[in-house]
Amino acid sequence: MSASWSLVSLLFFACCALLAVLAVGSPESSNLDLPVVSFDEGYAHLFGEDNLVLHGDGKSVHLSLDERTGSGFVSQDLYLHGFFSASIKLPADYTAGVVVAFYMSNGDIFEKTHDEIDFEFLGNIRGKDWRVQTNVYGNGSVGIGREERYNLWFDPSDDFHQYSILWTNALIVFYVDNVPIREVKRTKAMGGDFPSKPMTLYATIWDASNWATNGGKYRVNYKYAPYIVQFSDLVLHGCAVDPIEHSSACDAVLPSGSIPYAITHEQKVHMENFRKRHMTYSYCYDRARYKVPPPECVLNAKEAEHLRSSDPVTFGQGKRRFVKRRHRRASATSM
Ligand SMILES: *[C@@H]1O[C@H](CO)[C@@H](O)[C@H](O)[C@H]1NC(C)=O
Fold it and tell me: Which parts of the chain span the membrane according to its record (predicted)?
């Protein structure tokens, strides 16, 4: 083999190796490589007649909202802890009043003491992007809202992006495309407010005209219907349990290492960068609502400064007009 030939092949291999690295991504942003389930393996139709449609090999599904009804699906199993994820593409253009939710709840079993972990996507008028809201309830703690809201660094109606919930005994992490955007560490003082009972996964689209966009100023306009949200890459990597006799068996189903039990230092840096740029609301900094922030709040000077500069009335020393905050979860029957 001539010297020039070996140089060419060396370059060739170097190039392939580089491409392989690019395809896999950097280790900290890579997927956990958890199994993806088909719709029929993990989920079932919840409501909305024929507004749920399976695609391709049944690994993708879409939900739609039209003048007749919204729609939704629900996991077949209840889970105690795990990693739950979906790639979601939201409807484009005018989506004011439309809400898409991807969440865990046990409200149908524990009416007064339910737990909940939410991703909610709030539609917007044309030209303005969707906003994302996260929330956590434990043991029926609906009197304490723990909402946060963010905008994203991409248009979530352009393409699929991955939204994930990690829930362990000690921590809840919300991720967007594997970037953690919120971490809730369980503290003793939170008591029962940290979700602790098995929950099912839900995905829904519904008409929230009366609160979703500027407190109800912009309503759903059915001229643009149907509003279609697409889901794929469904991951339900949790400990499936019987709601009554849950517990110890989960250590075998979720052995240490199969899901993260903490976020890495590198991820934490990404999270902090995200929050100081994209967070638009956090209950922890809302002094009009909580004179003393709830016990799990870890205040961060950069987050505080960002919120104050974008909304001095809510997060600064400014006088506040009283704005009634509403949070309502439409139940399957009210849609
Ligand atoms: C959950 O709520 C119920 C009823 O409000 C209360 O009796 C119970 O002590 C709470 N459990 C925890 C763990 O806080």
Answer: none
Residue nearest ligand 1's atom 10 by CA:
192
Report CA-CA distances (Å) from 72 to 141, 201, 206, 331: 24, 11, 9, 11
Containing structural domain, residue 52 = 35-260
pLDDT at 19: 39
28, 116, 183, 272: the catalytic one is 116
Q: How many angstroms separate the alpha carbon of residue 141 from the centre of ligand 1?
A: 9
Residue 15 — pLDDT band, cuts 50, 70, 90? very low
Would you state the structure tokens that stand for residue 160, as one six-digit string?
A: 């699929």
Q: Which two tokens stand for residue 76?
A: 């077949």
Identify any residues that bridge with 201 across adjacent strands, giving them in sequence order. Answer: 104
Write the CATH number for 41: 2.60.120.200
Residue 306 lies in a domain: no
Give the total number of structural domains in the chain. Answer: 1
pLDDT in tens, 238-282: 999 876 665 556 766 777 677 888 899 999 999 999 999 999 999
Question: Model confidence over 104-155: pLDDT tens digits?
Answer: 999 999 999 999 999 999 999 998 999 999 999 999 988 888 999 999 999 9
Cβ-Cβ contacts under 8 Å for 52 (sequence gap 6 or more): 45, 61, 62, 63, 71, 72, 73
Residue 285, domain member (yes or no)? no
What's the confidence (pLDDT) of residue 314? Answer: 86
What lines the ligand 1 site, CB under 6 Å? 113, 139-140, 191-192
Domain assignment present for 202: yes
Closest CA to 250 of 80, 104, 117, 34: 80
CA 137 / ligand 1 centre spacing (Å) = 13
Q: Which atom of ligand 1 is nearest to the CA of 193?
A: 14
Candidate from 96-105, 231-240, 276-285, 312-321 with smallest mean pLDDT: 312-321
The active-site residue out of 41, 49, 120, 183 is 120
Evaluate whether residue 284 is within a structural domain. no
